[in-house]
Write a structure and sequence with these properties.
single chain, 157 residues, alpha+beta, 2 domains, five-stranded antiparallel beta sheet, 5 strands
């Protein structure tokens, strides 16, 4: 019976190989330059001078100045039934208006402390949409109609 157990640390042959490469690094570089016609050293120097370049990455600079354009608010109902007032220009959320809570039928619940929201709506926004509180979401009055009613109540249309 053979028992194989994992050792701590690198294998002995790996240690010997790394040591041999590091001891012979100048000779290896000289041979690489000789074979490539000096291209190996030129490539190493170019890598050292040039900072890393992002390839195919999308970079968002969150610290940059925002556009001076006036916000263009609209009501958005997301897939997870959150109802928000967002800006068309920047895509940022301006206010969390509430959510559509499931039940029979589903209903619109405004973002107030009484309804369990951590940051309630400002009083003037809540006063404008208060009449839609507990509005049932049915086939006749769906999410699109709720968004339109909220935009009308907030004076966005």
């Amino acid at each position: 019976m053979d028992i194989f157990s994992k050792r701590d640390g690198p294998r002995a042959e790996d240690v010997r190989a790394k040591r041999m490469i590091s001891e012979n690094a100048p000779v290896i570089r000289k041979l690489a330059d000789q074979i490539s016609g000096g291209g190996y050293t030129a490539m190493q120097q170019a890598k050292a001078k040039k900072p890393p370049q992002p390839k195919g990455l999308i970079i968002h600079d969150l610290g940059s100045a925002r556009s001076a354009a006036e916000p263009e608010p609209y009501v958005k109902i997301s897939l997870n039934n959150r109802v928000v007032l967002a800006d068309k220009n920047s895509g940022r959320q301006l206010h969390m208006l509430g959510e559509i809570r499931s039940g029979y039928p589903a209903r619109f619940v405004p973002a107030t402390a009484e309804n369990g929201f951590f940051s309630p709506l400002p009083e003037d926004v809540y006063a404008a949409i208060r009449h839609l509180e507990e509005q049932p979401i049915t086939r006749e009055f769906g999410e699109k109609q709720l968004a339109a009613a909220l935009e009308e109540s907030l004076g966005l249309t």
